[in-house]
Specification:
This protein is of the alpha+beta class. It has two domains: about 10-80, no CATH class; about 85-130, SH3 type barrels (Roll), CATH 2.30.30.30. Helix content is about 40%, strand content about 25%. The protein contains three helices and five strands. A five-stranded antiparallel β-sheet has the order 4-3-2-1-5. Strand 3 and strand 4 form a beta hairpin. The radius of gyration is 22 Å and the shape is elongated. About 5% of the residues are buried. This is Flagellar basal-body rod modification protein FlgD. Keywords: Bacterial flagellum biogenesis, Cell projection, Cilium, Flagellum. InterPro entries: FlgD. It holds the Pfam family FlgD.
């Protein structure tokens, strides 16, 4: 499920709190954003017409599912990045040109895998193509 934005929160303090706890890209809601929305909803609910317990449990289940999907995505990205170590890749540079090199290692940068190609960090979104490294180009310093 993609959420492109949430407008019209009840209190400016609530939206200010959401801005300070936002992690990740600006176009995505994170775990803390979801919890802040839930707490704000509970704080400003009508005491004469409280949130139905089934609705509240459904929201908690959605939060749990969101958290699990986020964790699965993180592990899938890390696994894919690890599978590229030792392979030759083509990737887009920040300048918009295509370069290629062999992935030497993987570094986690703020929860996102960063492939180390030579002395450059390459994000998974920049990778165009991957293939097994040619046997003559790979550094065999491991084998003795």
């Amino acid at each position: 499920m993609t959420v492109n934005g949430v407008n019209g929160t009840q209190a400016s303090a609530a939206s200010g709190a959401m801005e300070t706890t936002r992690t990740g890209r600006a176009d995505q809601l994170g775990k803390m954003d979801f919890l802040n929305l839930l707490v704000t909803q509970l704080r400003y609910q009508d005491p004469l017409n409280p949130v139905d317990d089934r609705e509240f449990l459904a929201q908690l289940a959605q939060f749990s599912a969101l958290e699990q999907m986020t964790e699965n995505t993180r592990w899938a990205q890390m696994s894919y990045g690890l599978s590229l170590v030792g392979n030759a890749i083509q990737y887009w540079t920040d300048a918009g040109t295509v370069e290629e090199g062999i992935v030497k290692s993987l570094f986690m940068d703020g929860g996102e895998p960063l492939l180390i190609v030579g002395n450059r960090g390459v994000r998974l979104g920049q990778v165009i193509q991957a293939a097994p490294a040619p046997s003559g180009d790979e550094d065999d310093s491991d084998s003795e």
